[in-house]
Amino acid sequence: MATHEMPPRIGAPAPDFTLPAVDRDGTVSLDDYRGKHPLLLALFRGVYCPFCRRAIAQFGAARDKLRAAGVEALGVVATTVENARFYFRFRPARVSLAADPELATHRAYGVPRPPVTPELVQELTAVKINPTGELPAPLPVVEAAGALDRLEGFQPTATDQADYERHGTQLCGQFLIDREGVLRWANIECGREGLAGLGKFPSDEELLAVTAALRS
Fold first, then answer.
1. 48, 92, 171, 200: least CB-packed within 10 angstroms?
2. How does strand 72-77 pair with strand 96-99?
3. What does the DSSP assignment read for the chain?
4. Which one of 3.40.30.10, 3.40.50.300, 3.40.50.2300, 3.30.70.20 gives the CATH number of domain 18-215?
């Protein structure tokens, strides 16, 4: 799958951001962490995405382990703060979240949004995935997403539908930023496996191994 953007160089300052917080009033920014704690930043698609909803839950489950290792965690969801708060009111996340409906943070961190081409449409039909292991067998990407929505009983809002139509091919990424605000690690969805890697989120062990490098 062709992509056309690159994340910032490892060892360079991480791009600044200031976004509305989902889990509280006010904003959250990189400056909130700089000089205090390393930050594991995870950029997700909108609430419409079943893979992202599950990855956010997985990220939340890893938060305490990361915090014990001295690393804070923040997720950015590509939807309006009102829509994010509506969803997470019923399914609270165990991790701090910010809203970025315009994908400004995704752009700043070079997370690709592949254009819809005949080749991509063909790949979406041909490649079968089961990233969370919940399905009886791997399915083509769109079918897998629909099956996971049905398992959850998810009903999209009008904002979810608009988010999907505006940026449904957006990829996700995770970034480790040290306490001085320098980027130390990046992982881009589908970067190693192509579409077969869609919806996969690093395991707790992978994240902790990455953060351990900050102490070496």
1. 92
2. parallel
3. ------PPPTTSBPPP-EEEBSSSSSEEEGGGTTTT--EEEEEE--TT-HHHHHHHHHHHHHHHHHHHTT-EEEEEESS-HHHHHHHHHHS--SSEEEE-TT-HHHHHTT-------HHHHHHHHH-EE-TTS-SSS-EEHHHHHHHHHHHHT----HHHHHHHHHHTT---EEEEE-TTSBEEEEEETTTTTGGGGTT----HHHHHHHHHGGG-
4. 3.40.30.10
pTM summary value: 0.94
Would you kindly state where each structural domain of the chain is located, as residue ranges?
Answer: 18-215
Quote the pLDDT of residue 5: 58
Which positions of the chain have pLDDT values less than 70?
1-6, 216
pLDDT digits (tens, 9 = 90+) for 105-153: 999 999 999 999 999 999 999 999 999 999 999 999 999 999 999 999 9
User: What per-residue confidence (pLDDT) applies to 177?
Assistant: 97
Pair 10, 186: CB distance under 8 Å: yes
